[in-house]
Predict the structure.
Amino acid sequence: MKSTMIEDTIFHKIVRKEIPSDIVYEDDEVLIFKDINPKAPTHLLLIAKKEEDFVSSIIDLTEETAHVPLMLIRKAQKFAKEKGIDGYKLTFHVGEGGGQLVFYLHLHLMSQQEL
Ligand code: 5GP
Protein backbone atom coordinates (compact mmCIF):
# COMPACT_ATOMS: atom_id res chain seq x y z
CA MET A 1 0.00 0.00 0.00
CA LYS A 2 1.29 3.45 -0.83
CA SER A 3 1.81 5.76 2.12
CA THR A 4 -0.46 8.31 0.39
CA MET A 5 -3.41 6.28 1.52
CA ILE A 6 -2.50 6.13 5.17
CA GLU A 7 -3.61 9.50 6.46
CA ASP A 8 -4.54 13.03 5.69
CA THR A 9 -2.27 15.58 7.35
CA ILE A 10 -2.66 19.29 7.95
CA PHE A 11 -0.38 19.87 4.94
CA HIS A 12 -2.74 17.87 2.68
CA LYS A 13 -5.44 20.33 3.74
CA ILE A 14 -3.12 23.28 3.05
CA VAL A 15 -2.32 21.95 -0.46
CA ARG A 16 -6.03 21.54 -1.17
CA LYS A 17 -6.63 25.08 0.20
CA GLU A 18 -9.11 23.69 2.71
CA ILE A 19 -7.35 25.62 5.42
CA PRO A 20 -5.60 28.95 4.95
CA SER A 21 -1.87 29.43 4.89
CA ASP A 22 0.41 32.32 4.11
CA ILE A 23 1.62 31.22 0.67
CA VAL A 24 4.67 33.03 -0.68
CA TYR A 25 5.19 30.97 -3.86
CA GLU A 26 3.35 28.30 -5.79
CA ASP A 27 3.77 26.45 -9.06
CA ASP A 28 2.67 23.06 -10.40
CA GLU A 29 5.16 21.17 -8.27
CA VAL A 30 5.62 23.03 -5.02
CA LEU A 31 3.92 25.15 -2.41
CA ILE A 32 6.01 27.46 -0.25
CA PHE A 33 4.31 28.95 2.80
CA LYS A 34 5.20 30.58 6.09
CA ASP A 35 5.57 28.38 9.15
CA ILE A 36 2.81 29.20 11.62
CA ASN A 37 5.30 29.14 14.49
CA PRO A 38 8.44 30.75 13.01
CA LYS A 39 11.80 30.02 14.60
CA ALA A 40 13.70 32.56 12.49
CA PRO A 41 12.85 35.94 10.88
CA THR A 42 12.17 33.97 7.69
CA HIS A 43 10.82 30.48 8.30
CA LEU A 44 9.22 28.85 5.28
CA LEU A 45 8.01 25.34 4.55
CA LEU A 46 8.24 23.74 1.11
CA ILE A 47 6.00 20.83 0.17
CA ALA A 48 5.41 18.88 -3.04
CA LYS A 49 1.94 19.40 -4.51
CA LYS A 50 1.51 16.46 -6.88
CA GLU A 51 -0.24 13.45 -5.41
CA GLU A 52 2.34 11.10 -6.90
CA ASP A 53 5.10 13.07 -5.17
CA PHE A 54 3.61 12.55 -1.71
CA VAL A 55 5.88 10.90 0.80
CA SER A 56 5.41 11.09 4.54
CA SER A 57 9.05 11.35 5.55
CA ILE A 58 12.63 10.90 4.33
CA ILE A 59 12.41 7.54 6.11
CA ASP A 60 9.75 6.44 3.61
CA LEU A 61 11.46 7.55 0.38
CA THR A 62 11.19 5.05 -2.47
CA GLU A 63 12.63 4.91 -5.98
CA GLU A 64 9.47 6.68 -7.16
CA THR A 65 9.77 9.54 -4.67
CA ALA A 66 13.57 9.85 -4.39
CA HIS A 67 13.51 12.92 -6.65
CA VAL A 68 11.24 14.88 -4.29
CA PRO A 69 13.80 16.10 -1.70
CA LEU A 70 16.08 17.33 -4.50
CA MET A 71 13.15 19.09 -6.17
CA LEU A 72 12.34 20.85 -2.87
CA ILE A 73 15.98 21.88 -2.41
CA ARG A 74 16.16 23.27 -5.96
CA LYS A 75 12.94 25.23 -5.40
CA ALA A 76 14.32 26.62 -2.14
CA GLN A 77 17.54 27.64 -3.89
CA LYS A 78 15.64 29.37 -6.70
CA PHE A 79 13.19 31.10 -4.37
CA ALA A 80 15.93 32.36 -2.04
CA LYS A 81 17.99 33.64 -4.96
CA GLU A 82 15.01 35.53 -6.38
CA LYS A 83 14.30 37.08 -2.97
CA GLY A 84 17.93 38.02 -2.37
CA ILE A 85 18.27 35.70 0.61
CA ASP A 86 21.92 34.69 0.49
CA GLY A 87 22.25 32.67 3.67
CA TYR A 88 19.84 30.13 5.09
CA LYS A 89 19.36 26.74 6.66
CA LEU A 90 17.56 23.89 4.92
CA THR A 91 16.28 21.19 7.25
CA PHE A 92 14.34 17.97 7.03
CA HIS A 93 13.17 16.63 10.38
CA VAL A 94 13.15 12.87 10.04
CA GLY A 95 10.83 10.72 12.09
CA GLU A 96 9.41 11.37 15.52
CA GLY A 97 12.86 10.99 17.05
CA GLY A 98 14.11 13.70 14.69
CA GLY A 99 11.41 16.13 15.75
CA GLN A 100 9.08 15.55 12.80
CA LEU A 101 5.52 16.49 13.76
CA VAL A 102 3.78 16.55 10.38
CA PHE A 103 4.10 13.40 8.30
CA TYR A 104 4.03 15.05 4.89
CA LEU A 105 7.58 15.57 3.69
CA HIS A 106 8.54 19.22 4.04
CA LEU A 107 11.71 21.25 3.82
CA HIS A 108 12.27 24.02 6.35
CA LEU A 109 13.96 27.14 4.94
CA MET A 110 15.15 29.42 7.73
CA SER A 111 17.06 32.65 7.46
CA GLN A 112 18.03 35.53 9.71
CA GLN A 113 17.20 37.77 6.75
CA GLU A 114 13.65 39.09 6.47
CA LEU A 115 11.70 38.05 3.41
P1 5GP B 1 8.27 19.36 11.62
O1 5GP B 1 8.65 19.42 13.06
O2 5GP B 1 7.22 18.29 11.35
O3 5GP B 1 9.44 19.25 10.72
O4 5GP B 1 7.63 20.76 11.29
C1 5GP B 1 6.29 21.02 11.12
C2 5GP B 1 6.17 22.51 11.07
O5 5GP B 1 4.88 22.83 10.61
C3 5GP B 1 6.35 23.19 12.42
O6 5GP B 1 7.44 24.12 12.35
C4 5GP B 1 5.02 23.89 12.67
O7 5GP B 1 5.15 25.16 13.26
C5 5GP B 1 4.41 23.97 11.28
N1 5GP B 1 2.97 23.90 11.24
C6 5GP B 1 2.18 23.02 11.89
N2 5GP B 1 0.88 23.23 11.59
C7 5GP B 1 0.86 24.26 10.73
C8 5GP B 1 -0.20 24.94 10.04
O8 5GP B 1 -1.38 24.63 10.18
N3 5GP B 1 0.16 25.98 9.22
C9 5GP B 1 1.46 26.35 9.04
N4 5GP B 1 1.69 27.36 8.23
N5 5GP B 1 2.48 25.72 9.66
C10 5GP B 1 2.19 24.70 10.49
The chain is about 20% helix and 20% strand. The helical segments are 10-15, 67-83. The chain has one domain: 3-111. Residues 3-111 form a domain with the HIT family, subunit A fold (CATH 3.30.428.10).
